[in-house]
Amino acid sequence: MTETAPPLLPAPTAPPEPGASGRLLARAAFLTAALTVAGAVLGLLRDQAFAHVFGADTDTDAFLVAWTIPEVAATLLIEDGLAFVLVPAFSLALVRRGRPGPDPVRALVAATLPRLTLALMVGAAALIAAAPAVVAVLAPGLPRADLAVDCTRATATCVFTFGLTGYASAALRGHGRFLAPASIYVAYNVGIIALLLLLGGVWGVRAAAAGVALGGVLMILVQLPALWRSWRRRERPPAVPAARREPGDSAARALRLALVAPVVVFALSRQTQVLIERFLAAPLPAGAISHLNYAQKVAQMPMVLSLMLCTVTFPVIARALAAGDTERARRRVESDLVVAGTIVLTGASVVVACAPQIIHLLFQRGAFTAHDTAATAAVMRVYALGLLGQTLVGVLARSYFSEARPLWFPACAMLAGLASTAVAGALAVPAWGAPGIAAANALGITLTALLLLWGSGRRRTALSVRRVGGGLARLLVAACGATAACWWGASASSDPLAALALGAPAAVLTFAVVARLLRVREFCLLFRPVTRKLWHAR
Asked: pTM of the prediction?
């Protein structure tokens, strides 16, 4: 639907990107990545503190059942679901601030926040009341069902706190502010660790559940100062031509069911992959689920780092599309795909080559034996085959949902990948066990990525699939060379730390050389400041 532009309109002017230069975007991405790593390290310390205080018994099983709620809530309300809806909504409101009349951002908040707050309160209260039924569904026959119910009632509060956290994060990212949203998991894990150490001896695992509730509150509080400053400061980007404005009240439509439903289906489908893996691994020998869990957490670290770039550029794409500048949005998405691919494939080469050393350094102590290290490393190497697909899905999903309109194609692609994971996993488990499940995961997410890439060439942004595919293919060649170099370097020492110290630099250097020789444009631009400094140092 297009409107006829009235005469004497000003020339089309794109709104400024959040953090108006590439240098500021790079700085924001670096700070976001640093805080994400800090949150991940604290998460590892949290798990180690939990194991140190409580060990592994029926009480810890009861808490882990209750832990399902924050896992799902984080995906729906912070990481994917709510962000995919609200970041484009805030970006559109900021673009439309150039129009005379009421502030569109405040109108958006007034139209959405009260309703969302009420829905979150009702959802949290319903989960608290239905905790016995929730536990019975998640873990029928659990020995300490009463304890699981108590923990579930405490963790159910995160539905409310995570929802407000996700809302604040989306609002800040829409304004181009990333530091406070990136620090939420630091605050969250600090809250859990604090109560674990202070009250674990008195309350048992209920202290960990209470820590989840406290951590959710801290996630909100850590964002309030930045949110208040953004609220007080009224920025006015250049006016957008009437021909590029969408009719209707965007604030009133921001949380429409038609817009939210495909996002929810997409986010839940991604989360369901973990449930399918655990279901398929249940009949396998003891420890298979743990091996899958440890392998996935470690293997996904390169993907997490690569997607930090997209967290920063998501509002840039949303603002460009809100202003009708599809060319800038297309260039940004194409560049993000190759740059994120560079980061994840460099990390994947180290994961594949040094998997045993990494697992040994992180986990091999106490009850975690050399056999566990070997089994987890074997699974992790297979998981790494799907890391590029995971990253492409993350980048492309943000580009799809940045259009702020109902789109079912990403959800359908995710469901197709989920179905292939389930079928391939069921066929592979009898022959290959846990590595077969990891292979099915890699197959399913890669299929989803290919479908999303194919569909992206037929959207408003119309990505050049051939150009992106060519860049990614060259990066895969560089990753193969980096893996071989890392494997060779790691084989020079039997000590895990020394092997990793030798292998990882070899992988990075080889990847850089091969990517440069293959003339991957985004790689050359990404590392141009480094190569210039090295050249002048000569």
From this structure: 0.73
For residue 532 the two structure tokens come to: 């210039």
Give the pLDDT confidence of 152-203 residue by residue, as tens digits: 999 999 999 999 999 998 888 877 787 888 889 899 999 999 998 888 888 8
Nearest-angstrom CA–CA distance, 82 and 75: 9
Residue 265 exposed, middle or buried by CB count within 10 Å (0-12, 13-18, 19+): middle
Query: What is the full DSSP assignment across 490-537?
Result: HTT-SSHHHHHHHHHHHHHHHHHHHHHHTT-HHHHHHTHHHHHHHHHH
- Tens digit of pLDDT for each residue in 384-397? 999 999 999 988 88
Residues sharing a CB contact under 8 Å with residue 398, sequence separation 6 or more, in sequence order:
84, 310, 314, 317
| Nearest-angstrom CA–CA distance, 266 and 80 | 9
Pick from 102, 491, 149, 87: nearest CA to 313: 87
Query: Quick one: tokens of 138?
Result: 């998640």
Question: Burial of 123 by CB count in 10 Å (0-12 exposed, 13-18 middle, 19+ buried)?
Answer: middle
What is the spatial distance between Cα 201 and Cα 204, in angstroms, rounded to a whole number?
6
CA–CA separation, 449 vs 17, rounded Å?
27
Number of helices and strands in the chain (H, E) = 26, 0
